[in-house]
Fold this sequence. Notes:
Blueprint: H1 14-28, E1 46-49, E2 52-55, H2 60-81, H3 92-118, H4 125-133, H5 139-142, H6 149-168, H7 172-192, H8 202-206, H9 223-244, H10 259-269, H11 277-288, H12 294-297, H13 299-315, H14 320-340, H15 356-366, H16 372-390, E3 405-406, E4 412-413, H17 420-427, H18 431-439, H19 442-466, H20 474-485, H21 488-510
Antiparallel strand pairs: 1-2, 3-4
Helix pairs in contact: 1-2, 2-3, 2-7, 3-6, 3-15, 3-21, 4-16, 6-7, 7-9, 11-14, 13-14, 13-15, 19-20, 19-21
Amino acid sequence: MDYRFVENINCCGDDHSYYLHSETLAQDFDLDYSNQLEGITQKGKIFINEDKRAPLGFIGSGILSAPFMFIGIKIDQILNSMMIKNSDLMSYKIMFYSIAPIFYLMMSYLLLTKIKNEMNVKFNNLIILLAIFGTGVHYYAFERYSMTHVYEFFTTTLIIYVIIKFYNSKSARLDSFFASVVPFAFLIGFLTRYVNYFIFLIPFWIVRIDKFKNINKRIFKYKSFQISLLFVFIIFYILSKRVYGVVSFSPLISYNKNSEWLDEYSEYIFSISSLFLDRFLDLIKIFTTQEFGLFWFMPILIVSVLYLFRDILENRSKNLIRNLLFLISIGIPIFLVLIWQTVASAFGMRYIFGVIPICIVVSILYSSPENKLIKFYLISFSLFSFLSVLFFETSAASSLSEIDQINTWGILTRWAQPSYLTGVIDSFFKVDSYQIIFGTSLLGSLIIKIFIEILTLNGFMSFLSNLGLNIENGDVLNTFAKIQSIEIHKFMILVLISILFVYQVIKNENNYE
Length: 513
């Protein structure tokens, strides 16, 4: 919650870049960032190309979140015009912008359950939900809401869903409709993160799944697809020219990087002397490291890979091409982590989140009642990973370092924590951790707000002191002051939205076949 206790998202990190993409669309209705970037001229903090200036990062998440920010802006305007108290702290503009990734995460879950139904496979919806939350991607919905990872997760899910609906459709009208939607799904997926090339492999493995009714249909023959594809290229051209001043499909353009920068990494990764042993050891570390290793913190990915290798060994050539396409898709973002050799200064190996829907589809496809050990691992470690998000940053050992230190791959970098696994387990047994979780949660913030309204801030602090709780921490006092300044109607809106999301999960589970 405390990431929402702000008046604005300030320059110049990733959160700020994606926020500006949304703001210029929702507030200014243009792609001119000059007013948002006024006074910011340092190359490296923003994109600069001759007279063009833009935020670093991709525009896709801004397009998806802009309608939510627009609603928040209008609510702020209405309240202000009616002279209703509405502080700038956690304005409705910020609040609704932060709700967007929660909405898309919920939509991803609902779409994945629909994908399961389209595949006509028995698979518990709650396990799908647990698998999602067992990766830590929800951290980027409920905490770091201005990052792209939930949007990547959603767009991958959306692409899979609309393609499957096309191949499962029985009517010419629906065929034409879904054929027209597919190019736009790919567009928003690519705009959200240019490096997620695995999305372009999705149609090739879907057509090799024998559970769909009309797999022999050829989408390229549909005029609706051809027209949409033309519009997609036109839209991409306009967006690229308006934002960057050039048309480019390269992810380097957004970060003001050139090919020499990529060559340096490639030379390091592919040097003959280190290609095999060192890179293999680095790959093993990605799976086993305490620093958000995939075995501990992304069990659904491990399960999907196990299923794929098992099927290759058992059936050999039967599903070989499909299985290899799955493995390549999953391997692409893992390869990016191998190149960067960091966890990217945040929770988890966040470059991998976009491929998780594919891992869930693999697990649905290959799951069977006999896989009790794999199912036990998936459930137990997903629960552990979910808890690790709750306890993230509740102690020094479960927080990323604010000073340079050696990470898992031997790189001196900031925001690393090579002992996160043992650190977060240690946090489970500290009382202070539970106090932090309570104080930074929506429920905790609401309860604190009610007590402050009844007792006043000083009275509430005296009450806590009488209970023997330590409230002298500067961060705690700052949080209390912010909660006091935020109007209670904002908390009530968040509670109502949370209830709505929980209701949808329960309703969906009741409809489980």
